[in-house]
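Researcher: Following up on the earlier apo prediction. This time include the ligand. It's flavin-adenine dinucleotide, with the SMILES given after the sequence.
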Amino acid sequence: MTIKRLFFVVFAGLLALAPCFARNYDADIIVVGSGLGGHAATYSALENGATVIWVEKNPVLGGSTAIATGTFPAAGTTMQKERGIEDSNELFIQDLNRIGHNKADQNILRAFVEKATSVWEWFVKGGFQVDTKRGPFIDPVHSAYSVPRTYVPSPNKSSMYTDFLYAKMEPFKSKLTIRLNTKAESLVVEKGRVSGVLVVSDQGTEVLRAKAVILATGGYGSNRDMIKRYSPKYSEVMTVTLPFATGDGHRMAAAVGADLVNMDYICAYFGGMPKAPGQYAIGFGDLTSGAADGWKGEIWVNQRGERFINEDDGDEDPREMALNEQPDLENFIIFDQGMVDFNKRFPIGGFEKRLEENGYAVKKADTIEELCKAFGLPVAQVKREIAAVNGDHSAGKTDRFGKKPAIGFTKGPYYGILNRGTIFMTQGGIRTDIGMRVLDKNGRWIPGLYAAGEAQGTSQWGGLGMAGGTGNAPPLVFGMEAGKNAVNEAKLIK
Ligand SMILES: Cc1cc2nc3c(=O)[nH]c(=O)nc-3n(C[C@H](O)[C@H](O)[C@H](O)COP(=O)(O)OP(=O)(O)OC[C@H]3O[C@@H](n4cnc5c(N)ncnc54)[C@H](O)[C@@H]3O)c2cc1C
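Model: Understood. Below is the ligand-bound prediction.
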């Protein structure tokens, strides 16, 4: 572009913004949502000199940090160097692409990886309480990264990040208005730019006006209608997301022309245990996630009584993908007393207690027939699978899934755990560029509108899969980025 043309474009842009110059704004920036993304965006906007109205529909700040743990991955950190761990952004990108099946937006993925290290270092240098005994480590719960690059706060709760950020806002509090119990309903667009939010609270319906708006509204894991519409296969799949995860940001952004991407992606994760039809809890990561690798012998069967995966495979991802293909995303984990004895070193946490408390998903029986009957599983097929495993174990053979059974079934009683794939976060979201500016279907910015966190859809940086810590770290990294860039845009508007 020639200098003359550049001047013309800038001049024309300023002219387009002119109608906004004379207007009154309630604040420079409005941030909608107060999870990790909302905290990071609010802090960053304040730190960059803006006044902020922070809108949260819940009575408290924090969003999903109320239940999530605090893993954060980053490459090339001081903590890694101190421990002699060699790592690089390229290796991190490779790992994320492997786990995400190469379906991430490569620009967003790279932007995340390149910024994650400095954000993590910023937390650490600022006195964030890190569990230095544990990290950096290879997170056993998800498909492993090539090197230890996961960190957790002490205690391991994601609210540690929001508490930290909230405390850092203290010097800027005179510039911050927090509106709890206030639901953003729609975005206000004037002269082609987003310039406010229509909100509803006990004060009624009002329009809050600002020079830019950041949507940090999280995912839509608790919005059945959206899941049915975009990923019908998951219509009945359990979710552990909190009730507020209703995709409001997705809806508001789409209404002003934003492109929603990968809305058909959902990847349910292990650990959902029904307590009764329609009710569930999280449990038994010991036998489902990567942490299960130490435990040997158990078989997983689907509703048809068929095994479908190498239960001992060290990589979490194939198991996760296979689980997503089973009827109702159900797997029944079956083992016997011989295996409990064999795996003494890896006791299953609280099995007896869960047996008492949740007879629906956790069962014990004297015979395999009784166990299958209790779960409604086809006895003959389960017995065929057991006979095959026993045969392979005796013969030292590797089975059709690549598993060489370390132990067969030897003695009762028999145990079973019903596990269902469960939605922890949603992959589809509001398309942004690497500056978190929301894009329309033609890839053009929607002036004044930003999105950060799960509202962007985890697929933008994580593709289709679940890499450890990529629920937490990107909202923090991109929240910071959105705050800074929104302020820069706001500075152009009088
Ligand atoms: C049980 C569980 C465990 C998890 N563990 C991990 C983990 O160990 N590691 C990891 O990396 N990830 C984990 N995750 C995922 C991670 O917690 C989320 O990806 C992350 O917290 C999302 O942050 P966010 O700020 O984008 O959204 P959220 O934290 O969901 O915040 C969104 C906020 O927006 C508010 N909001 C929404 N709509 C409106 C509206 N219309 N008006 C006003 N406010 C609105 C909501 O009330 C909420 O406060 C876990 C998730 C769950 C459910």
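Model: The longest strand covers residues 204-215.
Researcher: Noted. I'll compare it with the apo version next.
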